[in-house]
Amino acid sequence: MTVTPQWKVDLVDHIASTISESPVTAFVSIKGIRNKQLQGIRRALKGEATIRVVRGTLLEKALEKAGKKNIEKLKEFVGGQIALVTTLDSPAKLYSKLEKNRQKSAARGGEIAEEDIVVPAKDTNFPPGPMISEFQKVGLQAAIEKGKIVIKKEMLFVKKGDKISKEKAKILEKLEILPLDVGLDVVSAYEDGIIFDREAMSLTPEKVMADIASAFSQGKVLATDITFIVKEIMPELIVKARIQAESLAMEANFVDENNMASFILKAVSQASALQNELEGEPEETKEATKEEKPKEEDGAAGFGALFG
Q1: Parallel, antiparallel or unpaired: strands 117-119 and 155-158
Q2: Is residue 90 classed exposed, middle or buried when 0-12, 13-18 and 19+ CB atoms within 10 A define those classes?
Q3: Per-residue DSSP letters for 19-36?
Q4: Which helix (H) or strand (E) holds 264?
Q5: What does the pLDDT read at residue 154?
Q6: How far apart are CA 52 and CA 83, in angstroms?
Q7: Which 3 state secondary structure label does DSSP give 181?
Q8: Rounded CA gap, 178 and 304, in Å?
Q9: Do 37 and 123 lie in a common domain?
Q10: How far apart are CA 122 and CA 175, in angstroms?
Q11: Quick one: where's region Disordered (predicted)?
């Protein structure tokens, strides 16, 4: 029979007690986080949240012993590289604080580029030497100017979604380009018997209000389009009705004091168009018209003579 070491028993009891006493318990992913960065986040959240890296099996036992309603449902999120966070903050506030503590980090090689990584044309502090061949090896146009290595032309170094090679990661670090955005990603959280996923925690009051405002605006547009009469869109419907009435009156040539100015403008526009059309008439057409007029007059005179 295997005897559980006392230190493990004590650790599980301590974690269970911490979970039991904390209003909010959360799991965060620490994948890709370096120890230095984790310590920095711990310092930033000191007094607001406690972060502890615990083995999965011990964490599951602690959840079982915590004795809180539905807390054991968090066990399904135990796995991979995670850490336990206990806090007095709500899940949404915890999510917000962790997002604000994200940091830029150097690549090690093997990571997937989250965005296009561009190396700009720039001067470097490297003197002439083997570094220039390292730059050129990864495709950078490097040269020596004024005793320093310079990158002559901007280059799309790694496309979004591509893997960052170790060679390119090394060059990026030497150029002090930090392509990774790292931080603790909240996986799930527990509060008052409810399990929150990452998407639910990301719903800040500001985002909810923005979504409500957007939905209200879209609803007004739809209601106006289908002429669904409610008090919220009465001004828009009145404007819409007036525009439609004015358009119908113009088409039907119905003139009153309200649209007289529009009809005058319409008449001026039509007269101007007709004048332009006549002025653009070919010369031979004009001459033919002039020649035809006397003939019409002669014909009229002939008919007059017939009838005395």
Answers
A1: antiparallel
A2: middle
A3: HHH-SEEEEEE-TT--HH
A4: helix 260-279
A5: 94
A6: 6
A7: strand
A8: 102
A9: no
A10: 10
A11: 277-308
Can you give the CATH number for the domain in which 87 is found? 3.30.70.1730
Could you tell me which of 139, 134, 105, 137 has the C-alpha nearest to residue 119? 139
97 within domain boundaries: yes
Look up residue 249 and give its amino acid.
A
The band of 282, judged by pLDDT with boundaries at 50, 70 and 90, is low
Using DSSP, state whether 50 is helix, strand or coil.
strand
In a domain, 305, yes or no: no
pTM over cut 0.70: no
Among 28, 30, 79, 32, which Cα is nearest to 56's?
79
What tokens were used for 73? Answer: 């449902």
Q: Are residues 60 and 71 in the same domain?
A: yes
Q: Tokens at residue 153, please?
A: 């032309």
Burial state string for 31-53 with b = 16 or more CB within 10 A and e = fewer than 16: eebeeebbeebbeebeeebebee
Residues 152, 15 share a domain: no
Quote the number of domains for the chain: 3
As a whole number of angstroms, the distance between CA 105 and CA 157 comes to: 17
Q: Are residues 244 and 260 in the same domain?
A: yes
144, 150 contact by CB (below 8 A): yes
**pLDDT tens per residue across span 245-254:** 778 877 777 7
Question: What does the mean pLDDT of the chain come to?
Answer: 83
Q: Are residues 149 and 80 in the same domain?
A: no
What are the residues whose beta carbons fall under 8 Å from the beta carbon of 60, sequence distance 6 or more? Answer: 75, 78
